[in-house]
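Mods, move this if it's the wrong board.
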Amino acid sequence: MKALVRWGATLGLVGSTLLGSVFAGSFPALALSEQQIKDKLDAVPVYLVTNEKGLPLSRPLPEAQKPGGSVTGVYMSRQEAEAFIKELQTVQGKDPKMQQMVKSLQVTAVPLGVIYQQLQQSQKQPERLLFAFKPVEQEIKGAMELLRQGGQQVQQFTSVPIFAVRFSPDQGYVPIQLTADNEQLIPLFLSKQDAQGLLTKVKPKFPQADIQVIDIDGVIKTMQDKDDPWLNQVVLVPSQESREYIKTLPTEKTTPQR
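Not the wrong board. Structure tokens:
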């Protein structure tokens, strides 16, 4: 959870960049380590349904998919995770044997980087816990709309959509500048609305600018496999709902050194 608290300290700066200056820049090519990938993913809170002991609610995988252990849902929206608990309590609450269990369920937020790290560390474990991501329905619809506008025939979008603003379909991503230290960052948004805000800002100077739809799996694979020069400047921007949640986290206090 400390990673989310650290992100909260810079949240205001990232939010203000949508009103700041936008420009192109050149970056050195740097490969990302596993820790660097985790650090970037830690910017995004995800939500698990857990019991009173803090253990994720999970179910065994079908026999045909074993060995694989069990699977648990990872929600990108806290509200949707809470809605799932309410639905489960309504359905299962009528069963006396299930009442106590469902009453104890809660939503627990963890950094996305923790999920990534757990998957990396348990790759070779036959009975490992797998994670089934639950994208926000509104963002799925937004992603499919953009893909269809671009001429792609898509029937479904099965991953977590990521929205990136480009100068044009054949040019690079639009970087932003933090006014605090002039650092150049390339935002990858988990919300179409946030990406649209940046697109609206750059359109007057770059009429061909657009929003590219990618997915979290593609982002992670690119970070793992490529030495693309823009990767070190990438920052994942959580949805407005998650940003509001991050603001509620207590701020880490540092002990002054003597």
